[in-house]
Write a structure and sequence with these properties.
This protein has 165 residues and is mainly alpha-helical. The protein has seven helices and no strands. The relative contact order is 0.15.
């Protein structure tokens, strides 16, 4: 691995984990207070699962971003692929932003209804990112599958919490 690629990998993972850190600012204080008092669905996992799960998912997202980012120099002369690359990077940052915003809405504003709207847009943005990434790097798209599955499960939890409370 080139040194340049190593730093790209570190930056891509750090950027992804930063979204999680931003979300956790709103999450950590709400879990023992507001969230603990909510009625939750039967399939709700214990609270300690979420930290390791999200940390792992953000790392996978970072590796996915890295795999697409490093393709930039390979496609500079292909106008169509360069345009696809730019769309892919934009899609990634749209979904990453929506991910952080969801935490702000759900935990910060304590509003599961609006968070449900946000998570639908997040899910769609993840699918969009995966479709575009697939055209650039299939591995990058596949690395986002666990994230999509987790957000699908989180959508169920979000909906259930909204309905139960």
């Amino acid at each position: 691995m080139k040194v340049n690629n190593f730093f790209k990998l570190v930056i891509a993972i750090a950027v992804s984990e930063l979204a999680g850190a931003i979300g956790s600012v709103f999450t950590v204080s709400a879990i023992p207070t507001w969230y603990a008092g909510l009625v939750k669905p039967a399939l709700n996992p214990p609270a300690w699962i979420f930290g390791p799960a999200w940390t792992t998912l953000y790392a996978l997202m970072g590796v996915s971003l890295f795999l697409v980012w490093k393709q930039h120099s390979n496609i500079l002369e292909n106008v169509r692929m360069l345009r696809m690359w730019k769309i892919g990077i934009a899609a990634f940052f749209v979904q990453l932003s929506l991910n952080a915003i969801w935490s702000i809405i759900f935990f910060g504003l304590q509003n599961p209804g609006w968070a449900l709207v946000g998570i639908v847009f997040l899910w769609l943005a993840i699918v969009w990112t995966m479709v575009v990434f697939y055209k650039i790097s299939r591995q990058a798209a596949y690395l986002l599958v666990p994230y999509l599955l987790w957000v699908s499960f989180a959508s169920y939890l979000n909906y259930s919490i909204w309905m139960l409370n």
